[in-house]
Write the structure tokens for this entry.
Amino acid sequence: MESPVFDRADFIRLTGMLGAGLALAINVPGCAPAAGPSAKEFAPNAWVRIAPDDTVTVMLGKSEMGQGVATGLPTMLADELDASLQQVRIEFAPPGSQYADLKMGMGPIMITGGSTSIADMWIPLRTAGATARAMLVAAAAKQWGVDPASLRTSDGVVRQEGSDRRASYGSLVAIAATLPVPANVPLKSRDQFTLIGKTGKTAQRIDVPNKVNGKSVFGIDVRVPGMLYAAIARSPVFGGRVKSFEATKAKAVHGVTHVVQVSNGVAVVAKNTYAAFQGQRALNIVWNEGPNAHLNTPALFAAAEELGRTRKNERVALLKGNPGHVEGRVFEATYRGPLLAHATMEPQNATAHVHDGACEVWAPTQGPTAAQEAAAKAAGVPLERVTLHTTFLGGGFGRRLETDFVTEAVEVSKAIRGPVKVQWSREDDTQHDFYRPMSVNNVRAVLQDGKVVSLSHQVVQASLLRRALPRLMKNGVDFSSMADVVDVPYRIPNMRVTYIEHENGIPIGSVRAPQANWNDFVTESFIDELAHAAGKDPLAFRLAMLPAGSRSARVLKLAADKAGWGEPQRPGIAQGIAHVFWGGTYGALVAEVSLQGKMPKVHRIVTAVDCGTVVNPDIVTQQSQGAANFGLSAALSGKITIQNGRVQQSNFYDFTVLHMADAPPIEVHIVPSSEPPSGIGEIFVPPIAPAIANAIFKLNGKRLRSLPFSDALA
Amino acid sequence: MISIIVNGEQRDVDVAPDTPLLWVLRDELNLTGTKFGCGVAQCGCCTVHLDGVATRTCVLPVSQAVGKQIHTVESLSSDNAHRVQKAWIAEQVPQCGYCQSGQIMAATALLNKTPHPTDAQIDQAMTNICRCGTYGRIRAAIHRGAAEA
């Protein structure tokens, strides 16, 4: 083998490459060796280490919140490495620019969101695996004194063709570690994949075994020696501040050790979680409620509608043709979308220990970089003095992109000079979320000869980017709020899309598939309205506006075909269809719906998805099912309302979510594709609501233009 | 001092008698497989078996568990040999996994009482919340567990 081009700086280091900060103070079973990289491991790059015992440790730059990255990402590396998933261990990477998500377009930061993980890592992880494999092959060739071209690899073993020479990867690490890192190692062609795209036992999720026996460590499960537990009383009104507080009763609670004021409220610290919660309730706090105390949901909608009418600060996001001057039948409608909470199953929490000018944090976070920065700021220590351990996440859905819970834990630890876990109650979690923005969408279309010749769509929403990344706004438009509005797939000659920012004091954030999870309801319901107005079948109407053979047309046809679209339905049941585009992925969903009293009942969901190359088909199926159920939950009853600046809902009895009895069977059909992979974790959140609404229109002739259905049908 | 029987062992804990069993298991005995989700017995993350009956422990004072056999998810098996754990793996149920301890304990209690539950019986017994939406696979895993009994 020719000596590959290499840089001296690329020489393999046996130890220390990844820094001592990796060492976990806690044991995370099934996740990482407790001690981090060992001196005898082979670590050719930031992504993989191979140990003498044949263990392949893959560093995860993304957070595992259920979406399957802890399996999908190692699959890509292990395939090129020719290792089996069974020998793979995973380890959550510490914050570092080498683990940044470049697909998100937010700079060199570690973040998990936007259904970008697999697409972002498709080339880097495969390259890391292929490079390590090439070095192990070179090591075997050197050891045996043979031509590397005569060597083959599979399941973590190098073999020589035509001889009985074989060596496990683990036996080769000492030699491999002395070899130069080759550049431009070729990747496999698709027909050479052994793991990517495969199903069955060898493709099972790596994280599942420890999720059926209680061993998986979530943020709430982190235990640090000497750790206390804290609960924080926060202002019931958004943005309110502590005016004064009285802690006698809280301190009297058995087990309470400290009561301290922090920037977000008053923390009660105790020897166990229950005492902290009891102390939290016993606090007597006078709040300075601030300017948001007057906020009310009806007035907020009225204000958004007024902005839409007066077009104050309306910004153009897309203009095509001349939509204002098109003759034909004009249709206009207004859609109204509610605030929505994330309601992750694991209430927010973080554990922190500030000591000796340093800060250690354990957090279920989707944004390690942001969490580290927040911790450094709260602790008053330099960034490099913050060690952040990412745990498993008990759901994310965008809530854990925020850093409020990290700041709180660090502040409390600093105040009490010891390790502490800040644990939120469900009520805290429901009332102090960063909600999906409420929305008013005004749509207008012109039909000529049964065809849409003009479409105008005005979005009135608070901006997600305004708070987080205002520099990414363009001409006053928050394009992150315009998914499934500016990028509708339908060929319409005249289009005008506008945006009005409605800043209103409500803390807002990204909720799974932002803001497609609302906008797609508007787009796909309104298209359906127009189909019926034109006297056309809703599927045929859509297909007539799509290029034949387009990915959108293919998923619509596939879902319709598998659902038996157009065939007679049982009495009282109708089918509705909707399209969605999100995270580079195309989806279509058919819902079979009946009305039972004043609520829709979904009997069956059929989805079709084109997410390019599929890394793990069962996880694609799993995510499609899960996302549709997440969207169904929001569609049926998901809403947050505000009265006098306070969230009116508090727990699962008044922020109701989907249960088993209302969860329909969900079929998933995957379009075979050799395109690069695209996102799968969110795609079917948006289209379930419009598909249901479109079915309901067939059942009772009523067009529902707001969510949730529990209100819209009342 | 309060004495309870957890996973077959007597455990003595120094807590107020009104402390919910959930927090005794998690914070005093470090059995963190049992999860906290809502604190009002709505979500079922905290489900364990009390004398074989699926019970939500976030609102159950520890004093009411005295003298009863308490079994947590850790008692099923640590090597996933229990038929319900096997069924959960075969159907690849968990996503985030946070609610699954409670789901598995609820399902195990159901199967112990009703070896071959119908879908309607599953709907009635399985009222635990899963925000990842794994319901269809939970149903399939319960049927699989029933078939393999």
Observations:
- Chain B has five helices and five strands.
- Chain B has two domains: 2-75, 83-147.
